[in-house]
Amino acid sequence: MTLTFAPETPDAVPLIVIGKGDKDVLDALPEPARAWVAANHFDGKLGDVLVVPDEKGVPALALVGYGDAAARARGRFGLAAARAKLPKGTYRLQHGLQPEALEEAALGWLLAGYRFDRYADQKTPKAMIVAPDGIDVPRLEAIAAGEALTRDLINTPTEDMGPDELQAAIEKLAGDHGASVRVTSGDDLLEENLPMIHAVGRAAARIPRLIDMRWGDSGPTLTLVGKGVCFDTGGLNLKPGASMGLMKKDMGGAATVLGLAQMIMAMGLQVQLRVLIPAVENAVAGNAFRPGDILTSRKGLTVEVNNTDAEGRLVLADALTLADEDKPELIISMATLTGAARVAVGPDLSPFYATQPTDADALRKGALSVADPVWEMPFWTPYEAMIEPGIADLDNAPKGGFAGSITAALFLKRFVTDTPRYMHFDIYGWNPTAAPARPKGGVGMGARALLAALPEMLNL
């Protein structure tokens, strides 16, 4: 799996980007190439490839279709489709792309090299490109590596990616970048006043834990909190079998946070980074937490459990309280939290909530620049009453089903009271249909947008 650019070489084959029906570029080709294009009816359709041989049959140049604006608007990383279609070799992009489009094309090319090959050999593309002039090579390679980490973590089944293995992955990441890790596990969670993490994970064979990673000693303080539910049976409110099929991805928030953390550390951003991952399995056993239980959180707020399948917000609540006690400049939580978010925006958009409009504006701007689409949802105060059951301070699963993503976000916001700037992402973490540079399976959502926005958010 190659997620880097090829070394500079004078022998790179020209890879010419041609928009659909772009007669000027076609007319500028050598006459034999124009004849080859005509014979093969190549018209620049997005992602199409045509290799033009020389008189010896060796590729002299290759054409890749850029389509038209309407085709490009229907997806991302359209040029990346070319990578798997090209023969083995090193290519040099020749293009008339604007900087943002060039960055998308270059990053898409890298991500198109991703394969999840832990359990079976996968056919990987053999075509490489030399880094185009004008792009930040270390940045794009760091982003690709972070995205690959996220995808690998999500794609790995729980047998090999439970709380123990997730902790090991974090410890490796920390070791690679000189970060520190502290783990609180099992009954120590009770001693350290993290009771809801303990309650959710206590029925599993692999003990629950909170993993706390810190990196950097200068700059603004940033805390990332990721939902690390490594498998979710639904608890005693057991999910149907079909609904359990993708629950290895219920730690997608943790995986995405860790991918973002790798990007930040690899790029050496001047921040003081803290990553908090409550890592648990929501299992069924005699000591599982029950519908009707009232849990007391780290913050002292009581929570009535009306559905044990709404466990993610419980473990995040304790982690967010811990984060808030530090009073960082910005807290960001990421979680595969609600089906309501999927119904609202589908699997492709990252719904987010922000307490500060300036942070939301920066994120939208960043998202547009890196082809990582986001959509703002409201912390809608009038819905606060929906999460207040009367018998306890909060309800983890309000009845009725209305505004499910919003009420979950409002629930989490109750645990961030001393940090004015808080953002929450209710992501899906899974690509259900293969697309250029985005194979079916685990996928990072919102991380690139955040990376692009952080310099404005934190004045870096």
Describe this structure in words.
The model has no long low-confidence stretch (mean pLDDT 96). α8 (195-201) runs antiparallel to α11. Strands 6, 7, 8, 9, 10, 13, 14, 15 and 17 form a nine-stranded mixed beta sheet that branches. This protein has a five-stranded mixed beta sheet with strand order 2-3-1-4-5. The chain has a three-stranded mixed beta sheet with strand order 11-12-16, with helices on one face. With 460 residues, it is of the alpha/beta class. It is 33% helix and 21% strand. It folds into two domains: 13-133, Leucine Aminopeptidase, subunit E, domain 1, CATH 3.40.220; 140-458, Zn peptidases (Aminopeptidase, 3-Layer(aba) Sandwich), CATH 3.40.630. It is built from 15 helices and 19 strands.
